[in-house]
Amino acid sequence: MTRRTTLAAGLLIFAALFVAINLLAGAALRSAKVDFTEAGLYTLSDGTREIIAAIDEPITLDFYFSSKLAAGRPALQAYGKRVRELLEEYERLADGKIILRLRDPEPFSDLEDLAVQLGLQGVPVGDGGERLYFGLAAANSVSDRSVIPFFDPQQERFLEYEISRMLYLLSNPEKRVLGVITSLEIGGVVAEDNPQQADAPAWQIAREMGALFDVKRISPETARLPEDLDVLAIIHPKDLPEPVRYAIDQYVLSGGKVMVFVDPHSESDLPEDPSDQFAVMTHDTASDLPGLLSAWGVSYTPDVVAADAFNAQNVLYMVAPGRREPMNYVVWLGLGEDNLNREHPVTGRLRKLALANAGVLDAADGATTTFTRLAWTSAQSMRMDTVASRAMPDPKRLMTQFEPQGEELTVAAIVTGPASSAFPAGPPEGSNLSAEAHLDRSIEPINVIVVADTDLLADRFWLSQNAFGAINKIADNGDFVINGLDQLAGSSALIGLRARGEFARPFERVEALRADAEARFRARELELEDEIRQTEARIQQIRFERPDSTDVVDPEVRREIASLNGRLLDARKELRDVQLNLRRDVERLGTTLKIINIGLAPAIIAVVALGLGLYRSARRRADRRAMAHH
Fold it and tell me: What pTM, to 2 d.p., does this model score?
């Protein structure tokens, strides 16, 4: 056999082995993967894995993505691929309990009609009325359905949470049970026994609770909680008896989830006769859970309200009979996105919370739990005495007393982790719970959301009615409450899910360069605008002082204007230079990154190969010399 034939045969054998190994690896290592992303975007969390493992009956996921309409939109195509690959990972881990079907609805097709019927949201694209679909429809074995209408790339950090929540609800389709202990009439009042008193309708938040949960109203005097609760809401607890607080204590330590609303001054807590001014002044409007909050790791006192000049809501205040003026009311807060936890599912998608006379929450000294704030004030805030805000609800006088303390004040938080009982000695007198079953500490990490305001539940603080009777939402208070209850009512695995990283990663150096140049640009632009205003003001001043003169001003003023115009031209040239340098810096950095990304890896391989070649050549020469000596 010639040397050429031997070489050809060797190449054929190598090619056959290469193909065979790839085929075997493709089949045997299909599930093998390595996630090199910084935030582990392609690795499902332990909580999600627990939810998947608990699925008993098959769940079908129909992923709708209009691939043709997404063509030409690279960011949307990339995110569509990201969602599809994540869903495929769910399917892979489910061992047949999740069935993923990919749907590509064409415009004006039967599949598009089905998508609309299922509740998916189409986004208009183009001029022909086409709609792009990018959502998920899911169903369990008993035809319960759930839908994510549209995957918003801006909400990518909650992608895993939304999908896992959908799977959890479909695998646990029965309506969850919400217990409510409250001293406020959120469920409405029917004045059958008192014709002089008008019926009070149920608050909107109570109606929304009823739509999502099987609500059980629990008397504030009860010493035992129902055993089938999924979550407990405690709203404005006033002087709860010790046996009731002990029942709550043991419920939390045994794994029960609670959302608490306390308040240093609840404007929604009115006396039986609101027209009696003496009753209004003497009525206790504060609430607290003494012992329990501190045992859970929360410090709260009803003697303090959070005042915030930056986030104060603007109100019309009567300064004289028949005359109202807009004023900032420092104890009525409108907290925006900068004051809400963007990384937590409860608050991550909210835009605004409206609160009134909210209290202040802090992590208790020596707490064993983790205190995570959900909503907070700006640094232009003050811990104001409750007496001041309650005794004189006068925006102007409160502002004169306001002194910012440079501290952001927490008004809503979630506490998680191990906790001890607020009743170390066991059941108090009057409790009907067994002393033998007493828990000294939690059997699993507790999960409690604490909100230092109850007025945010009242309709008037987050809803408005227009002239036609339509109700409009002016704040996200309802979503906040429902999000909190919904998350707590899920499994511990679902509660443990948090916001993840984002697929789109900008070049941080590029963005930093751009931001720096833009900052210089804006600063110089403001200087220019100020110079222009001063010039115009100077001209107007001259014309005012010399009304009988013509439009032709004296030479001195003309020289001044010419000088300013010259400086203006110089500044504009400087702006152009800044923009040019910005573009050059960005292009230079981009070129460097391309060289690194495209050329660095081959260069490293080439250097390694060259080094190996030189090493082997040196070894062969050394071996030949050794053989020559022998």
Answer: 0.70
